[in-house]
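Homework-ish question, so no full write-ups if that breaks the rules, but can someone show me the predicted structure for this set?
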Amino acid sequence: MHVPLLDIKAQLDPLNDEIMAAIKETVDSTRYILGPQMESFEKNVARYCGTKDGIGMSSGTDALLASLMALGIGPGDLVLTTPYTFFATMGSILRLGAEPVFADIDPDTYNIDPAKVADLLSDISLKDKIKAIMPVHLFGQCADMDPLLEMAGRLDIPVVEDAAQAIGSSYPSMKDNNLQWRRAGSMGDCGCFSFFPSKNLGGMGDGGMVVTSDERLADWLRVVRVHGDITQYHHVVVGGNFRLDAMQAAILDVKLRHLHKWHSARRRNAAHYKELFQQAGLVNAGYVQLPHAVYEDQAAAEKDIDFHIYNQYVIRVPDRDKLKNFLLEQSIGVAVYYPIPLHKQNCVADLGVSRMSMPHAEKAAVETLALPIYPELTGEMREYVVERIRSFYES
Ligand SMILES: Cc1ncc(COP(=O)(O)O)c(C=O)c1O
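A: Not a homework solution, just the prediction itself:
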């Protein structure tokens, strides 16, 4: 049996007519730059996330870059983030001449550990230089935002959520002792999404967005998005061409209507994997550590909360690389996110971060493996994946 890591075609086939109609409408409109398609999609994403504004961007990377630009981050500044994420999180900081400073991850969730953030923020040599905090909601589960927002608020440091993998993921915030589910991207000063095709909301090319409820920041983001142009040919800052393509916006607007259904299917697949791995005895035997959806219990009392959107379903295993090769040979698509933590990347070898010790990120980099989790994955396919993993460890 062939089980791909992702099957975009299976998702698109039932949407074909809707998407073709949206593409035709965009073509006929002849408004390909900053047109009505993009504005409609911006409004719909902002409403979905619970923010005032959405600003379409050319990619998740550019959403992060534009956010840091709009916040005035530059040379001499430090941005506090996680070492265990996609490169763009750190790349956006370095491209502005700023430097990253890393807080290690919580080994249970792979997200930034608020206790480690607290240590860095109380370090007298760093404190005044940290000009932004950038938590990443890795694999589709929100970082523990309440303590991060509390610390950032107390020190007046802006928070940019890298929510590239987490659109729609909800966090149980306990503001003023009231439980409030807040969507990824809506909690910090702004939140950044990627519409890379493999994301839960994926386009047919590159795309991204920043959401925010800070009107001033939204205005700046719109300026930064068009080369810092405030009125035609009057440039107040150096920005870039960071605009979201109208065609992508039209396609994504169609797909947004189906997003919650896909999130639910991914959660159903995760629940089934859990059952299968437990039945196979792989969890008790210590071979497979399942992903921990830390907000699941709180969500149980309510209906249909996207407490984890499983952009990736990541297990922790011994002999990871051998298992990976074995599964690939069996025609099962698996992947490693991420084999090298950011502080170990060659491009930062000359920076202070390369000497930092991040034991949890370093361990995760050699032990984790992503399995297929896409919505259309069948029960039979999940059974096959688990059966093959069982045969690997029991042979
Ligand atoms: C955590 C994270 N940040 C940023 C990005 C960058 O997004 P894009 O590929 O749309 O530039 C990604 C995309 O893979 C990501 O996973």
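Now go work out the reasoning yourself. Hint: The domain at 8-256 is CATH 3.40.640.10 (Aspartate Aminotransferase; domain 2).
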